[in-house]
Amino acid sequence: MYDVKKNLHEVLATLSDGVRLVAISKYHPAEYIMAAYEEGQRVFGESHEQEIREKHEALPKDIEWHFIGHLQTNKVKYIVPYISMIEAVDSLKLLREIEKQAAKHDRVVRVLLELHIAEEATKYGLTLEACRQLLADGEWRDMPHVKICGLMMMASNTDDEVRIINEFQTAEHFYDEVKSNYFASDPDFCERSWGMSDDYLLAQQHGSTMVRIGTRIFGPRVY
């Protein structure tokens, strides 16, 4: 078995104060998650509805599950009963569906709005202008079962450190804009989820409060 416990502690030792780890456990078996759990890790990220549902049923109930991948609206109903946070809300349509399904279970689901800042067509997310428009239109204010808690983004997959830093800075400045304009009096709007295995050290220097790290902890994908 990959030395999950050792790797976890090595990663935790590099996190700045105020930065939380979301351990990305997708494609990794339950025993790997339990190894991290036994060391105190409670927040795990998954990106497939069926996989996260099976793990939720098999693993301790105090685990905080984050859905981190592109979420199709027809899958929302399956994860809403237990999901702690949906990190990648990239449309008003998806926000509406989360509200609808969360209402059925009489619970509030925390979400992050996903930004598309990287110059890569393969990435999902709202452009800055689309995010501004979604917030300005205000329909989200009438969704009592959805709690917008911050923003999420992925930097470009590149060795160009300057480009990565520029993207993190763009996200950081945009967060400040959104916080000031819409959530100034809302302490729950406080999350900036950016930084992954290869760039989280840079992300921490540019406002990140949550880093999503998988490979450095769990090793190559098992399945």
Task: Give an account of the 3D structure.
This protein has 223 residues and is an alpha/beta fold. It contains 9 helices and 8 strands. An 8-stranded parallel sheet has the order 7-6-5-4-3-2-1-8. β2 (43-46), α3 and β3 (64-67) form a beta-alpha-beta unit. The longest helix has 22 residues, at 161-182. It is globular.
- Global geometry: globular
Radius of gyration: 17 Å
The count of β-strands is 8
| N-to-C series of helices and strands | HEHEHEHEHEHEHEHEH
N- and C-termini, Cα separation: 14 Å
Major sheet: size, sense and barrel closure?
A: 8 strands, parallel
The structural class is alpha/beta
Number of helices, counting only DSSP H or I runs of 4 residues or more: 9
Widest sheet: strand ordering = 7-6-5-4-3-2-1-8
**In terms of per-residue confidence, which ranges show pLDDT below 50 for 5 or more consecutive residues?**
none
Helix content: 25-40%
* Beta strand %: 15-25%
pLDDT averaged over residues: 95
Characteristic key phrases:
single chain, 223 residues, 9 helices, 8 strands, globular
In short:
This protein has helices spanning 4-12, 30-38, 49-58, 76-79, 92-104, 128-137, 161-182, 200-204, 215-218, and strands spanning 20-24, 43-46, 64-67, 85-89, 109-115, 146-153, 191-193, 210-213.
Furnish the topology, listing elements before pairings:
Blueprint: H1 4-12, E1 20-24, H2 30-38, E2 43-46, H3 49-58, E3 64-67, H4 76-79, E4 85-89, H5 92-104, E5 109-115, H6 128-137, E6 146-153, H7 161-182, E7 191-193, H8 200-204, E8 210-213, H9 215-218
Parallel strand pairs: 1-2, 1-8, 2-3, 3-4, 4-5, 5-6, 6-7
